[in-house]
Amino acid sequence: MSMHMKITTVACLASMAVAAQVVGQENAATPRPLITVDAKAPQRAVSPEMYGIFFEEISHAGDGGLYAELVQNRDMEASTIPQGWKVDDSNNVLTPLGWRTRRWFKTDLPGWSFLAEGGGEGSMQLDVNTPLNDRNPHSLRMTVTKRGTRCGVVNSGYWGMAIQAGEWYDATFYARTEGQGQGPRPRGVGLVFSLESAHGGKLCARVTIPEVGGPWRRYTLSLQANASDPNCRLVITPIEPVTMWLDVVSLFPRKTFKDRPNGMRRDVAQMLADLKPGFLRFPGGCVVEGCTLYNRFRWKDSIGDISQRKGDFNLWGYYSTYGLGFHEYLQLAEDLGAEAMVVCNVGMSCQARRPAEVADADTLRSYVQEALDALEYAMGLATSEWGAKRVANGRTQPFRIKYVEIGNENWGPDYLRHYKVFYDAIKAKYPQIITIADAPPRGQQSPEPIEIIDDHFYVSPARFFGMANQYDDADRKGPKIYVGEYAVNRGVGTGNLLGGLSEAVFMLAMERNADVVRMCSYAPLFENVSQRNWPVNLIQLDSSRCVGRSSYQIQRLFAAHRPDVVLQTQVQAPQVELTGVPALFGGGGQPEGQTSQWLKVRQVYALAGLDSKRGEVVIKAINPTPSAVTGTVTLKGLTKLGTKAKVYTLAHADATAENTLDAPNVIVPKESEMAVAGVQFPVNLPANSVTILRLAATTSG
């Protein structure tokens, strides 16, 4: 994800509240759209990795999202200002080169508060004396001078902790005391852990752990919930007055995705699994680059015991724990059955956050080595330096990395120079790795060897409708193309059906040109609805729920019905005008950037392919208009046709409809069957729809 977009204009579809209307509707005199499929014409193979996913820590996609940790600011480091940065009098935080952002925390201990009930007295504060370790120099000092009914500290989680009755939750924490518990037979203090509703009215679980005290020590406990609440908090209270230091306070549901320790939320990760991704690109995005080079994603700080990880400010405006780290990304890719695609920093900070830092030739060697060390950690022998660390972290067998992207949305002479150094170093040690380069400026060719080039598009619906023939004229002798980030991110609310339909048209263009477009991934992937850093995202979530927008449903359909080869498909359909839809970015023949109250689209877009494993022809058809259309399909060069076709339809009468957490099933696919009489048959395409037909067939001859 990036602030640097290849196409940048912001516009508002204020009129989208009014349903679009078709000018010149289909009538009895209007011929039916014709979809002609020719299986005898040359075919283009589709990569098994055509449809993948791209993860970046943005909008709390990881901490407070996919990552199952329930405690916010568990390491007490969320108010740490990165090395070399400073805070001005206006609460802005400035990097050494002058890029600024608002201070992301309001207190020294974000996520934590002090509780004193029934006459209890005490305080909490951030402390730097006698730290747990040098990687987590801050701790929470809890002082209870008068217990009262109860007195202690509270963690609110990431906008609440979702607790389910009957489920187990495992907590770990580090604690120390002074005075009490320092002798040869230390006397500890009992500590009560409670999971309760936001205001304490409902108790979901409670456990007392005795004898907490002495020097720093790790403690574990488990709680079984006897009640459910999606908005719980964790309350930690001593049973007597004490001064105690706490650090790395962690709480996980026992059931994570694939039951991995330090794992992922089951419901959220399952949504990724349901996409059947061909690859997982990680860890970003602009977080790979950082606001400064020091602030980049430092993978070596993200492995091992969570108490030894060193988080950092995330350039999207909050602190990242690095709990979801390099090892977890690799494990997640494997658990999803996806190829791993690692993005490495190329010795450049984010160029969109000017001024950017660029490593000199001598320093660049350390960034190259950092990338090589990452590959060794993942794939090296247990006897290698970093392979041994992987084994120490519980993984004996190597992981598999197929792709390395060299940089993220970097450009210019510095990038090309750095790219060549990285390319040569990676290929020398790992020749099997397929490298990906950032796209050069339009119309320019890089002099360096490039295997795959990364293209990004964040646009309006009109722009994607206008890109129905994108890549048709791409250089077949040049690098392959990876469309690493694409989405409609304006004019569609938080993600309505119109945006999804226009993306589907663009996806047909990529699939049709699968000989040159090897892979693609929608972005951004996740959004915690309590902190949106990007206007439109694929999956929305809160503490207890997650929902896929219409674009998610389209991604899922395209991946599930990916053909092995695409067939030549001709579509004869009239153009129609939609009113009430601004034509942005030159859609419908309008000049670049001009806004109009109409948009010209084809009545039908379609593409066919063959699924050789199942012996079926797959036909994808899109009707972006608000009226149902009956088309005619003609199949040439196919035999042994079935008499019934499976039909998968995603549609809604209102193109501005959206799925939400409160209404998750407004736009979901429906399955049906239709009779097929022969090589030519009618097909009904509902208004505002994506329709997929699967029909038994084999190629003739």
Short description:
This protein is an alpha+beta fold.
Keywords:
alpha+beta, TIM Barrel, 42 strands, ten-stranded mixed sheet, Jelly Rolls, 10 helices
Give the DSSP E fraction (strand runs of 2 or more residues). 25-35%
Shape: globular
Number of domains: 3
Query: What's the mean pLDDT score?
Result: 91
* SS-derived structural category: alpha+beta
Q: What is the CATH-assigned architecture of the largest domain?
A: Alpha-Beta Barrel
Please tally the helical runs, counting DSSP H or I stretches of 4 or more residues.
10
Description:
- The structure is a single chain.
- This protein is of the alpha+beta class.
- The protein has three domains: 164 residues, Immunoglobulin-like, CATH 2.60.40; 316 residues, TIM Barrel, CATH 3.20.20; 168 residues, Galactose-binding domain-like (Jelly Rolls, Sandwich), CATH 2.60.120.
- The chain is 15% helix and 35% strand.
- Strands 2, 3, 31, 34, 35, 36, 38, 39, 40 and 41 form a ten-stranded mixed β-sheet that branches.
- Helix 5 crosses helix 7 and helix 9 packs parallel to helix 10.
- The longest helix is centred in the middle third of the chain and has 19 residues.
